[in-house]
Design brief:
Blueprint lengths: L14 H15 L7 E2 L2 H8 L3 H13 L3 E3 L5 E3 L4 H19 L4 H16 L4
Antiparallel strand pairs: 1-3, 2-3
Length: 125
């Protein structure tokens, strides 16, 4: 199994977002198993014809989302399954508690969350 990323220069998404999304999709689907060692930032940047900072930005976002983990000089790996889901669940719980504290009804809180998800995923419906 290998990492498969194609950058579409004409796409609406920035190259770093395309790298982030492709790695996240492959990790989520199991195409990249837990523990899979990702290429170095420089190595992937060279392969894709991108600046190292572009790939580094994608890796930082993926690490922040719990999809990958960096183990110092040992490299960067696909994180244990469920790490991202656990992080998202914790964030959702924090949102629910804040919404309740500020007096939003459940219906209004769900509407706010739906709007945020639509904005994040670029959907309108």
């Amino acid at each position: 199994m290998t990492l498969k990323i194609d950058i579409d220069g004409g796409a609406g998404d920035a190259p770093y977002e395309q790298v982030r999304a492709r790695i996240a999709e492959q990790a989520r689907s199991g195409a990249l198993p837990v523990g899979y060692k990702l290429p170095t930032v420089r190595g992937l940047a060279e392969t894709l014809g991108l600046a190292a900072n572009t790939v580094a930005k994608a890796y930082r976002a993926l690490e922040s989302d719990g999809v990958i983990e960096t183990r110092g000089r040992n490299g960067t790996f696909v994180a244990a399954a469920g790490t991202a889901a656990r992080a998202a669940s914790a964030e959702a719980q924090a949102f629910a508690e804040r919404a309740r504290r500020v007096g939003l009804s459940e219906e209004d809180a769900l509407a706010v969350a739906r709007d945020a998800l639509r904005a994040a995923y670029g959907t309108s419906g």
